Amino acid sequence: MSRIIAGAAGGLPLLSVPGTATRPTTDRVKEALFSRLDAYEVIADARVLDLFAGSGSLGVESASRGAKIVDLVESADKAAEVSRSNADLVNKTLKQQTVRVHHLKVETYLDRVTPEDEWDLVLMDPPYPVENESLTMILTALVPHLAEGAVVVLERSSRSQEPDWPSGLERFAEKKYGETKLWFAEPTASVL
């Protein structure tokens, strides 16, 4: 069973998506990821976007740790339903509407954002079959919406090749945890 690791809702158990269609981030990887994000000081009061949210565990962890607004984007019906339940649970614990769920394809969601929409932290955990070309298109759509000092985290299989980072976004770190690899990217100065 997944849980929130730290923050105001720390220890709260989370629902998981039934079946094998989603691949939850392990608590070990989640703990290491958020330790790094805490060190980067990008969570407190952040506007967070969790793409391919699955159960929403990464986004709700951000909310528990002090993010101001968290948007979970998930297209699969069962996963979106679980995301909504976990969001409601965390919002109730935090006594405010911090986490919002968008039951849409990632591309559709990004097509609908306004020029004023901006994020400090973007978490992406796409299904492994998503091709690099699709990831590059999604990353390209994100670039104009990244705040100064923003961090983009992409979680993939450790056997996956590194994505093609679009103009305006560059990788500054990567870390492997068993079968999982995390890439960290930031907007380049010319974009800001």
Our measurement of the CA-to-CA distance between the termini, rounded to an integer number of angstroms, reads 40 Å
Q: Kindly provide the radius of gyration, computed on alpha-carbon positions and rounded to a whole number of angstroms.
A: 15 Å
Identify the quaternary structure here.
single chain
Order of helices and strands: HEHEHEHEHEEE
Number of E-state strands: 7
By DSSP (H or I, 4+ residues per run), the number of helices equals: 5
Structural class of the helix and strand makeup? Answer: alpha/beta
**Beta-strand percent range:** 25-35%
Largest beta sheet, briefly?
Answer: 7 strands, mixed
Strand order of the largest sheet: 3-2-1-4-5-7-6
Helix content: 25-40%
| Sequence stretches where pLDDT stays below 50 over 5 or more residues | none
Label the overall shape: globular
